[in-house]
């Protein structure tokens, strides 16, 4: 019977035999909770436990239903994205769904990016990256929901663009949407007026509305997990050395052809061809980075994954799928992005390979910094 249940966070089949395995839920919890919608694997539960308030993760189908309904309204769309995982936060087809409604992009977790990066440059980068995804935002705001940074200016910007209409806040899970909504609630005086409502016909979700003083409201919408992230393979303390909590200190490595970097045991970067030049690594400051010869890298990984190369820790290594290789010919300075883990900035005229656990994307983008 349990074989038919799936974690609604990561989609892994629910099992109760291997506590460290994908989709683990204690047998007692499965018995208590037989509704498929109610089941999260332990990992997703923990991931979600970092949340101050919990977001509701929807299936793609329900999420599309909601987007379609929002598209039929006359409103301002606020799309919250994670600056640390921009491509992982993009909602495919958002522009098409919301039609003529303006979209305001809110880049959250600004606190993780180096202070030296000019914010105007970052905004330009977001706008261009959004354009490449088919999004035409009316504006781009940078905030840190967690640090309560720039929330006031965001609210002013929202008020400017909503022009007396409702506001729908959309975002995939883990971008910090709940944290932002919590901050906004804290800043509003009339908390007693908060309305919970079944806003989306055809779904059973009670969502929070924060009223403006003109009959209109800001409406929170559920998130959807739409991309396999590196961090889905990690649990507990492993997350502390892979998910950055503070400003990332970029690390420069002078690499020549035939050299490899390991990012814990989660990812591998091969510098295949190019001048001896610096690559810059942007990952959690606590993540162990190891340099080795590419010719020796496979053996090195075999020997040290889970020990010298962490995370995952040794006991959790069996849950990590094998690393899969993606090769890139780089014509202009670019970021090689390991979804959810960070990125490596590489110079032009090089050939590199990025490796990530099977199912996790390695992609190339215009350099952010
Ligand atoms: P949601 O799924 O979009 O509602 O995301 P949450 O609000 O639950 O946040 C997801 C994770 O991102 C949590 O671990 C938060 O602590 C973290 N987070 C949220 N806002 C920020 C921020 O501004 N900066 C940083 N560094 N982390 C944040």
Key features of this structure:
single chain, 369 residues, alpha/beta, Rossmann fold, 3 domains, seven-stranded mixed β-sheet, five-stranded antiparallel β-sheet, 24% helix, globular, binds guanosine-5'-diphosphate
Spell out the blueprint of helices and strands.
Layout: H1 27-32, H2 42-49, E1 57-58, H3 60-71, E2 75-82, H4 86-89, H5 94-98, E3 103-108, H6 119-132, E4 139-142, H7 151-162, E5 166-170, H8 177-187, E6 195-198, E7 206-211, E8 217-220, E9 223-224, H9 237-240, E10 251-255, E11 259-263, E12 267-273, E13 277-283, E14 289-293, H10 294-304, E15 323-330, E16 334-338, E17 342-346, E18 350-357, E19 362-366
Parallel strand pairs: 1-9, 2-3, 2-5, 3-4, 5-8
Antiparallel strand pairs: 6-7, 7-8, 10-13, 11-12, 11-14, 12-18, 13-17, 15-18, 16-17, 16-19
| Shape summary | globular
The CATH topology of the largest domain corresponds to Rossmann fold
First CA to last CA: what distance? 50 Å
Individual helix count: 10
User: What is the CA-atom radius of gyration, in angstroms?
Assistant: 21 Å
Percent of residues in helical segments?
Answer: 10-25%
Explain the overall architecture:
This protein is α/β, with parallel strands linked by helices. The chain has three domains: 2-48, no CATH class; 57-224, P-loop containing nucleotide triphosphate hydrolases (Rossmann fold), CATH 3.40.50.300; 232-366, no CATH class. The chain contains ten helices and 19 strands. The strands form four sheets. The chain has a seven-stranded mixed beta sheet with strand order 4-3-2-5-8-7-6, with helices on both faces. The longest helix has 14 residues, at 119-132. The radius of gyration is 21 Å and the shape is globular. The N and C termini lie far apart (50 Å). The relative contact order is 0.12. Mean pLDDT is 86; it is low at 49-56 and 191-199. The structure holds guanosine-5'-diphosphate. Guanosine-5'-diphosphate binds at residues 50-51, 55, 108-109, 111-112, 144-147, 171, 173-179, 223, 245. It holds the Pfam family YqeH-like_C. One of its GO terms (molecular function) is GTP binding. InterPro entries: G_CP_dom, GTP-bd, GTP-bd_ribosome_bgen_YqeH, Mito_lipid_metab_GTPase, NOA1/YqeH-like_C, P-loop_NTPase. This is GTPase YqeH.
């Amino acid at each position: 019977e349990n074989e038919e249940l799936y974690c609604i966070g990561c989609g892994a089949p629910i099992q109760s035999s291997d506590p460290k395995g994908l989709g683990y839920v204690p047998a007692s919890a499965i018995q208590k909770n037989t509704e498929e919608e109610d089941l999260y694997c332990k990992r997703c539960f923990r991931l979600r436990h970092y949340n101050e308030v919990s977001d509701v993760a929807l299936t793609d189908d329900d999420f599309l239903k909601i987007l379609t309904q929002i598209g039929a309204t006359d409103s301002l769309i606020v799309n919250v994205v994670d600056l640390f995982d921009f491509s992982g936060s993009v909602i495919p087809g958002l522009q098409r769904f919301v039609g003529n409604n303006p979209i305001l992009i809110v880049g959250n977790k600004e606190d993780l990016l180096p202070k030296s990066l000019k914010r105007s440059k970052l905004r330009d980068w977001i706008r261009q990256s959004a354009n490449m995804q088919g999004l035409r935002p009316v504006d781009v705001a940078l905030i840190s929901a967690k640090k309560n940074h720039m929330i006031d200016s965001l609210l002013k910007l929202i008020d400017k663009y909503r022009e007396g209409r409702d506001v729908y806040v959309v975002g995939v899970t883990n971008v910090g949407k709940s944290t932002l909504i919590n901050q906004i609630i804290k800043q509003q005086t009339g908390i007693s007026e908060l309305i919970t409502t079944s806003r989306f016909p055809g779904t059973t979700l009670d969502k929070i509305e924060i009223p403006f003083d003109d009959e209109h409201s800001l409406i929170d919408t559920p998130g959807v997990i739409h991309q396999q992230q590196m961090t889905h393979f990690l649990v507990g303390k492993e997350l502390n050395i892979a998910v950055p909590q503070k400003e990332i200190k970029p690390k420069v490595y002078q690499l020549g052809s035939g050299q490899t970097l390991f990012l814990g045991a989660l990812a591998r970067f091969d510098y295949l061809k190019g001048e001896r030049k610096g690559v810059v690594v942007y990952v959690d400051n606590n993540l162990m980075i190891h340099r080795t010869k590419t010719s020796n890298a496979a053996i090195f990984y075999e020997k040290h994954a889970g020990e010298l190369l962490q995370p995952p820790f040794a006991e959790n290594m069996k849950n990590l799928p094998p690393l899969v290789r993606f090769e890139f010919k780089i014509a202009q300075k670019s970021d090689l992005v390991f979804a959810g883990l960070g990125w490596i900035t590489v110079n032009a005229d090089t050939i590199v390979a990025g490796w990530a656990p099977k199912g996790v994307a390695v992609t190339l983008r215009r350099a952010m910094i």
